[in-house]
């Protein structure tokens, strides 16, 4: 989301030169920063406060010996971005038995989907959530929540044909106590715009049941209007926090920089993708470093620890070392990488990589395309061929080509690339190359940049990106 703003800020800061941060060499930089923020749809009063704080801290500040003025300016801008985004991470409040979390928002903000994503996250954190369908006015709302609940294998509490939300919540609390649920996620009713009836109902729930959390779902792609919505909800309900969705989108991102500052409420969670596991705790410090092109190595490591299966990784390590790596094993490894998220997001977390959004998108798109082709290719094999790559010969490759609708030349290229990968992996005993901090939690991918179509990194751009990424990751062992 912040790619355009990030590129502009990095370019502006890199121009700062001199022995001291003075009014002269700061004036142009501040003017350009102001313009970049306004173009990113950041609220005007936020921009004024941000620029004023930077100016006060930067003017006349002595540059430390050996530190470039632009680096010192990065530190100042970074600290102000952290303040703008809420200063520090604020965890969810789980007081109460059971704990109640009200999920609020207008229609279309992603409220119901965010409720399901929150249930996934809470289960992963060891809690037992119950989804409660409180949107009794929109016909599809309850069925949507039930569908999502089924998909994530989480129970959804409803009372058929009831429009008494107070009764629904009280009944859900009683049921939760009987059934051992420790957290209720209330998917409340939304409207196309804030109205008296909607707010009266929400106020009733708030005053009777005193939820520990009142989280407003904000679509990060709605721009300035999101600030107005957040301020209205907060004025009447007293929000405890915000859920910012669609942070993986292509909008200018100004609302993400404005909404917390304008309401004084912390962004507690962010939606970073369409998958139901794509809801993460929000860390102002990490977001600031990413905006300034400094990467986010902590989130990268945490995500890898979460995604990669240690037992499966050990099994793959043993197979690689014995040259028994099969096409089935390749699919398992690729699916683990897919669970990590898009390659574009992955590259964006690696500090110092300096690859633009367009190039990251190209790499990510090519990787997805090549993996889908490889999946179709492997699906056209017999079970024996998938498990024993040594069986592959000319006649088998021709048969597979017909079965998967590819040219023989392309199938032959896939087979050759796979064999090159097997040779590369032969004798590999250390699988910690990419993420040393994670022990044996994932395979060594340090040579993925040379795998052509298999890794989805065709051409010089992909190889350069992956090889540079691997070098950066080794620094964090």
CATH H level, superfamily name of the largest domain: P-loop containing nucleotide triphosphate hydrolases
What is the helical fraction, as a range of percent? 55-70%
Q: Strand-and-helix sequence, N→C? A: HHHHEHEHEHEHEHEHEEHHHHHHHHHH
CATH architecture of the largest domain: 3-Layer(aba) Sandwich
What coarse outline follows from CA principal-axis ratios? flat
Largest sheet: 8 strands, mixed
DSSP strand (E) fraction? 5-15%
The number of E-state strands comes to 8
* Rounded Rg: 26 Å
* CATH class call of the largest domain: Alpha Beta
- Unreliable spans are 429-466, 468-477
What is the CA-CA span between the terminal residues? 29 Å
- The average pLDDT score comes to 78
CATH topology of the largest domain: Rossmann fold
Structural class, please?
Answer: alpha/beta
Tell me the number of helical segments per DSSP (H or I, 4 or more residues long): 20
Instruction: List the strand order in the largest sheet.
Output: 3-2-4-1-5-6-7-8
What's this entry about, in short?
With 477 residues, the chain is of the alpha/beta class. The protein is built from 20 helices and eight strands. Helix 6 links the parallel strand 2 and strand 3.
Which key terms come to mind for this protein?
single chain, 477 residues, alpha/beta, Four Helix Bundle (Hemerythrin (Met), subunit A), Rossmann fold, 434 Repressor (Amino-terminal Domain), 3 domains, 8-stranded mixed β-sheet, 8 strands, 56% helix, disordered C terminus
Task: Tell me the layout of helices and strands.
Layout: H1 3-14, H2 23-39, H3 44-58, H4 69-84, E1 99-104, H5 111-124, E2 129-133, H6 139-152, E3 156-157, H7 165-179, E4 183-187, H8 196-209, E5 213-219, H9 225-237, E6 241-245, H10 254-263, E7 267-271, E8 279-281, H11 284-291, H12 297-307, H13 310-321, H14 327-340, H15 343-349, H16 357-379, H17 383-387, H18 394-404, H19 408-425, H20 459-474
Parallel strand pairs: 1-4, 1-5, 2-3, 2-4, 5-6, 6-7
Antiparallel strand pairs: 7-8
């Amino acid at each position: 989301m912040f790619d355009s703003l990030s590129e502009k800020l990095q370019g502006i800061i890199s121009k700062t030169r001199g022995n001291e941060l003075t009014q002269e060499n700061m004036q142009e930089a501040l003017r350009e920063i102001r313009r970049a923020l306004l173009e990113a749809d950041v609220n005007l009063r936020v921009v004024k406060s941000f620029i004023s704080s930077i100016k006060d801290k930067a003017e006349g500040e002595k540059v430390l010996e050996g530190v470039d003025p632009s680096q010192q300016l990065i530190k100042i801008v970074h600290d102000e971005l952290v303040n703008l985004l809420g200063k520090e991470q604020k965890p969810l409040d789980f007081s109460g038995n059971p704990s109640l979390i009200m999920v609020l928002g207008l229609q279309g903000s992603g409220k119901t989907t965010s409720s399901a994503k929150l249930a996934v996250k809470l289960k992963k954190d060891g809690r037992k959530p119950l989804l409660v369908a409180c949107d009794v006015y929109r016909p599809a709302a309850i069925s949507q929540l039930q569908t999502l609940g089924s998909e994530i294998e989480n129970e959804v509490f409803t009372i058929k044909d009831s429009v008494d939300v107070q009764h629904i919540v009280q009944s859900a609390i009683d049921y939760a106590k009987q059934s051992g649920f420790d957290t209720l996620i209330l998917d409340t009713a939304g409207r196309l715009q804030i109205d008296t009836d909607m707010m009266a109902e929400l106020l009733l729930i708030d005053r009777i049941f005193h939820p520990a959390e009142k989280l407003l779902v904000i679509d990060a792609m709605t721009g300035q209007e999101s600030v107005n919505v957040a301020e209205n909800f907060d004025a009447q309900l007293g929000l405890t926090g915000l859920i910012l969705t669609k942070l993986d989108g292509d909008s200018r991102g100004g609302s993400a920089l404005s909404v917390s500052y304008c309401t004084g409420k912390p962004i507690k969670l962010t939606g970073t993708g369409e998958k139901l596991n794509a809801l993460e705790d929000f860390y102002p410090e990490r977001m600031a470093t990413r905006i300034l092109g400094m990467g986010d190595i902590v989130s990268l490591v945490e995500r890898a620890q979460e995604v990669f299966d240690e037992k499966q990784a050990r099994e793959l390590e043993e197979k690689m070392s014995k040259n028994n790596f099969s096409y089935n094993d390749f699919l398992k490894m690729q699916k683990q990488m897919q669970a990590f998220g898009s390659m574009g997001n992955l590259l964006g977390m690696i500090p110092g990589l300096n690859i633009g959004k367009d190039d990251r998108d190209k790499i990510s798109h090519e990787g997805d395309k090549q993996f889908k082709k490889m999946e179709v290719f492997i699906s056209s094999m017999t079970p024996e061929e998938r498990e024993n790559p040594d069986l592959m010969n000319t006649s088998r490759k021709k048969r597979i080509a017909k079965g998967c609708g590819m040219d023989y030349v392309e199938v032959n290229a896939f087979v050759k690339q796979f064999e090159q990968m097997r040779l590369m992996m032969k004798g590999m005993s250390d699988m910690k190359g990419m993420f040393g901090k994670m022990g044996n939690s994932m395979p060594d991918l340090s040579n993925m940049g040379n795998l052509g179509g298999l890794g989805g990194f065709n051409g010089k751009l992909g190889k350069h990106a992956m090889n540079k990424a691997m070098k950066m990751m080794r620094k964090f062992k």
